Amino acid sequence: MPLTPEQQQEIAAARAAAHPTRRATVPALEEILYEAIPVLDHGFIRVIDYMGDDGAIVQAARVSYGRGTRRVSEDRGLINYLMRHRHTTPFEMCEIKYHVKLPIFVARQWIRHRTANVNEYSARYSILDKEFYIPAPQHLAAQATSNRQGRGDVLEGDAARRVLDLLRDDAERAYAGYSEMLNEDEQGAPRDPSWPGLARELARMNLSLNFYTQWYWKTDLHNLLNFLSLRADPHAQYEIRAYADAMLDTVARWVPLAHAAFNEYRLHATTLSATAIAVVRRMLAGEAVDQASSGLSAREWRELMAVLGRG
Amino acid sequence: MPLTPEQQQEIAAARAAAHPTRRATVPALEEILYEAIPVLDHGFIRVIDYMGDDGAIVQAARVSYGRGTRRVSEDRGLINYLMRHRHTTPFEMCEIKYHVKLPIFVARQWIRHRTANVNEYSARYSILDKEFYIPAPQHLAAQATSNRQGRGDVLEGDAARRVLDLLRDDAERAYAGYSEMLNEDEQGAPRDPSWPGLARELARMNLSLNFYTQWYWKTDLHNLLNFLSLRADPHAQYEIRAYADAMLDTVARWVPLAHAAFNEYRLHATTLSATAIAVVRRMLAGEAVDQASSGLSAREWRELMAVLGRG
Amino acid sequence: MPLTPEQQQEIAAARAAAHPTRRATVPALEEILYEAIPVLDHGFIRVIDYMGDDGAIVQAARVSYGRGTRRVSEDRGLINYLMRHRHTTPFEMCEIKYHVKLPIFVARQWIRHRTANVNEYSARYSILDKEFYIPAPQHLAAQATSNRQGRGDVLEGDAARRVLDLLRDDAERAYAGYSEMLNEDEQGAPRDPSWPGLARELARMNLSLNFYTQWYWKTDLHNLLNFLSLRADPHAQYEIRAYADAMLDTVARWVPLAHAAFNEYRLHATTLSATAIAVVRRMLAGEAVDQASSGLSAREWRELMAVLGRG
Amino acid sequence: MPLTPEQQQEIAAARAAAHPTRRATVPALEEILYEAIPVLDHGFIRVIDYMGDDGAIVQAARVSYGRGTRRVSEDRGLINYLMRHRHTTPFEMCEIKYHVKLPIFVARQWIRHRTANVNEYSARYSILDKEFYIPAPQHLAAQATSNRQGRGDVLEGDAARRVLDLLRDDAERAYAGYSEMLNEDEQGAPRDPSWPGLARELARMNLSLNFYTQWYWKTDLHNLLNFLSLRADPHAQYEIRAYADAMLDTVARWVPLAHAAFNEYRLHATTLSATAIAVVRRMLAGEAVDQASSGLSAREWRELMAVLGRG
Question: Average pLDDT, stretch D105-109?
Fold first, then answer.
């Protein structure tokens, strides 16, 4: 994520500003405002703006005239209650805006979360930089054999080298083709003056899905937590999880009470099916239950035993 | 809109705060932050929080590393361009939160705008105050005869008096019934100790639609402008238009460039149908066009003539 | 829910139609199509249209060229898998449309579910019928003492009579005032020709929240199940739960496999917090755990014990 | 768009079905149901299912007990009225589902329309076919010089040949790399048994944006018309416009009255700004107006003159 000096200067200028405001502010989040937090080899997330804090959740739940907050223990109790009982609307009263740089294949997963506002850098209008994602060696995984949608062991030796060379060479070549078709030099003049260069909106189709794009992405806290509960989950693809993990850290700075409630009641919580609850009851009553007598499928049984620490 | 001393104090306390922030701030909006702006006889809007300013629209459109703004004339030109060409996503990058007190029948129209976040005061959980809307004499209109969904002349004399008395008496009686069924005194103890009082969630059904409710309502600038284009329109019912007009004033403070573009390209713009454009072309070519030869219905013809100042 | 003869005739005519279609059809749902299923004292739900069936979920999950379904056991397995793992998008591929008649206070809760399409009968434009909700004696509950948002014991004897009389009398009076202000006879002519009648959009504010309104409401299966998981829940107010229960029956007819998966993995499932899971593990390991040592609040402990059948 | 024999058979089987239904049916749309309508070189759209017809718009607007339709002329008048006055909710009562095969760069534009349901073919789970988009010669355009986001003249001769060769060679090579990294033969066994093949979720990043993906896409008529008003517009990129045009044809079959209203009041309508209307009024009053005295920018003036046929 090498920012250009000009970009660094713009960020520094934004960080240098200090205006007085009557709005709720969160010093721990202000501290990192605008800073580029690195993700993957060339990506980042930057918090650009935010609205509200833990108090704003309480304030909305109470439809208050003032801040609405009372003692910290009462606010925590209320936020835990709201999270447990799926009273989601007060969490929608906080909003956050990120600037994200991410590979296109990650952007394609991310955009599936519809309840957000997005402005993406336009490759119809502008030219993409030559930056593409190459997995670090420890993330270069084989296809899982047990699960069609997952990763197996990490590739090593020749196999790893071959894959990395291929990814790099093909991306280099894709970008070379893109540049040749655009036919523009640094000043925007044709490199080869005998023809005008292909339309940008067409040339971009030559780039591969590991090229980086960027966008502004804004959402409310409730929908952000939905996003994170799916994308910070071990079943999510590693590359988007890396972004979700970095965002979770910003949530901890922003709304520590909501963050703790999210960990307790959602991210590290487990949903047991009607049949699974019946199994747990029987086990607690001292009955020896096995998969055959449980009413659960082999897979559900395995997952339940893992949850119960009897894996 | 008589606020209680306690409410006034809470608002004053919130207004007294001043925190430093690195975020974009808008002094003209800060000036009125948290203040209750009166609407109708007991209602208000209060701006509770906001995210972004005119610069944030530009910043998102450019996917900038810094503020993204250039000279004011360039920013104005870009914002006008975005508004004209329906590039709506940059306007979604600004967010605003209101606290609104409004009659239930207005709330029922308002809530139809789905792209917003809402927390309403719960009459399942709490007791509503005795505050109901009675139209001012100049808004007490007869049913329109030309238009089934509209107002005609203002009622006067006996008719007006009779209607106002009826509205007031029935609302008083509805509240008396509500109170009697709740059977609670000021301290929450039963007034008549021989029975426990009806569940709040049931008792509320006795209230009429002119009683006031309140909510926190938060939306982005694009969806706010959609709301205002429908609700600040002369076809909207007067009572919701009163709220929309008050909100338009807050938009003028908040994002003056976007507000001007909205007025020019949406609120005071007109959409001409394919046939209407053909009519205008023929008229400009010197042809005498009348309704019969226009291809327009009588109503469309009348509306077009009004737009063209030939009403 | 006394339908007029004209309404009954319209429904019968719609039910009499039989067109051939290449689309997926569900005979069990066709059987009740258009029929008014009674809810509360004057309300109903009617299934007006639907798109898709259990097979459409499978088809979309597989992005198939044909129907996509295989053996029933495979389809059931896939649908269970999707429901368990929150792969929600295939469930969005089924759509259903209801005509609902419901008290306004129920409509106000219902409309909070934003991901749906709605057309409500307009009291700006038309005149509402004299139909209001009066709870059946067994639903006339006192305010709960333990829970500010709930019902306690059923009212009986004098208290019940007084409440029912109040509700009925006030609703009668509200409608009388509404009619008087409208000043229209059955033919729409002024009853009292000395004045024109109040605008409908104003007169309606005299009606109380137990009057019935009606709307067309359309949503996809995923969002319908979200609605039902909240509104068919014991914590929901009885009156909206009555609608949710009637809708659940239509879901069972429409998509029996999805309905069963919903019961197993959502409606009758339980989410255990991180701390609650740790408690269950300790109990299964033979440890004696009490609330003090559990890390749970008194309320959470009570709820966990209830789930585990140790209440 | 060469369908495999198996796919053709699945489509034929679906088309052969004929079930009786009480629902609204549209024979003109049934006629092409499931058929693959070719778009671009390998893409298609297929109508998979639909709910409602022109009558359903009328029915919802009237909140009818029966079909709600009257004489065709009355229905047409009502639908025109709803379209002109932006009463959008009745149009949301019709729903349509497409199966679409499209290049990834088109999918990236398309997905920005958030109010739709989508299931995309998963390249985490499955292997993409070797099918990529190569523009037809007449669509191989140079970058526009006047407009950074548009196309200029069509490329010809050597330039065209060079670009087409580049696009084809790079896509071939990208797919070869993808295949080599997957290391699977037709039966899913490793081609090179000395290593297990890269995880599919990683290998896919080597593909370029002109490769085809496919999805099920479902939306309501109102949101579909929004999509089409932006994507069937001359400012849209040709490749997505090709899809929009094919979809417009299906709308004409499905809801001919709504389609006609859409053409008249939206697709071929023009919005004039407040200032532009003032200009037209002055011109109609016989005044000679030029850009300088118009209050319009040079660009707005040019566009207005084009609309008025004075280009």
Answer: 98
Q: Is the pLDDT of residue D278 over 70?
A: yes
Assess whether D76 and D17 both reside in one domain. yes
CB count, 10 Å around CB of C125? 12
Q: Which pLDDT value is given to residue A311?
A: 65
Taking only residues 191 to 230 of chain C, the set having a beta carbon closer than 8 angstroms to any beta carbon of chain B reads 194-202, 204-210
Q: Is the pLDDT of residue C148 over 80?
A: no
A204, A217: one domain: no
Judged by CB atoms closer than 8 Å, whether chains meet at B284 and D235 is answered as: no
Query: B118 and B200: one domain?
Result: no
The more confidently predicted of residues B71 and D179 is: D179
D95-103 and D117-120: which strand pairing?
unpaired
Same domain, B245 and B215: yes
Which range (A97-106, C66-75, C166-175, D208-217) has the least confidence? C66-75
Helix (H) or strand (E) holding D282: helix D274-284
pLDDT at C93: 98
The answer to whether residues C39 and C106 touch, using CB atoms and an 8 Å cutoff, is no
Is D264 in the B-facing interface, judged by CB distances under 8 Å? yes
Among the listed residues D216, D35, D95, the one whose alpha carbon sits nearest the alpha carbon of residue C22: D35
Given an 8 Å threshold on Cβ–Cβ distance, is C63 in contact with D90? no
List the catalytic residue out of C46, C200, C204, C231.
C231
| Euclidean distance between CA atoms A120 and C90, whole angstroms | 27
Q: What is the DSSP string of B97-125?
A: EEEEEEEHHHHHHHTT--SSEEEEPPTTT
For C141, the closest of B107, B125, B202 (CB atoms) is: B202
Nearest-angstrom CA–CA distance, D188 and B167: 77
At B69 the pLDDT is 79
Range of the domain at D175: 134-209
Tell me the ipTM for this assembly. 0.95
Looking at residue B95, its pLDDT comes to: 98
Lookup: tokens for C181:
């202000």
Global confidence as pTM: 0.97
Q: What is the mean pLDDT of residues C152-178?
A: 96
In angstroms, the first-to-last Cα distance of chain B is 41
Query: Which residues of C fall within a CB distance of 8 Å from D95?
Result: 51, 95, 218
Dig out the tokens for B229 from the structure: 């284009």
Residues A170, A236: one domain?
Answer: no
- The pLDDT of D264-288, averaged and rounded, is 96
End-to-end CA, chain D: 41
- CA–centroid distance for B227 within its chain: 7
- Chains contacting chain B through 3 or more C-beta pairs under 8 A: A, C, D
- Rounded Cα gap, residues D191 and D197, in angstroms: 9
Confidence (pLDDT) at B1: 56
Nearest residue of C to residue B112, measured between CA atoms: C111
Chain A contact partners (≥3 CB pairs within 8 A): B, C, D
A–C: how many Cβ contacts below 8 A? 75
- Cβ atoms within 10 Å, residue C285: 11
Q: Note whether B241 and B165 are same-domain residues.
A: no
Measured between alpha carbons, how far apart are the two ends of chain C, in Å?
41
Return the number of other C-beta atoms located less than 10 Å from residue C73's C-beta. 8
> HSE of C125 in the Cβ direction (CA atoms, 13 Å)?
8
**Spatial distance between the Cα atoms of C286 and C305, rounded to a whole number of angstroms:** 16
Contact B135, B165 (CB under 8 A): no
How many domains are contained in chain C? 3
Region A180-184 average pLDDT: 95
Whether the per-residue pLDDT at D169 is higher than 90: the answer is: yes
Q: What mean pLDDT value characterizes chain A? A: 95
Query: Contact at 8 Å (CB) between A129 and A138?
Result: no
> What is the pLDDT, as a whole number, of residue C2?
77
Chain C residues with beta carbon closer than 8 angstroms to that of A150: none
Distances (CA, A) of B291 to B50, B276, C218: 49, 11, 40
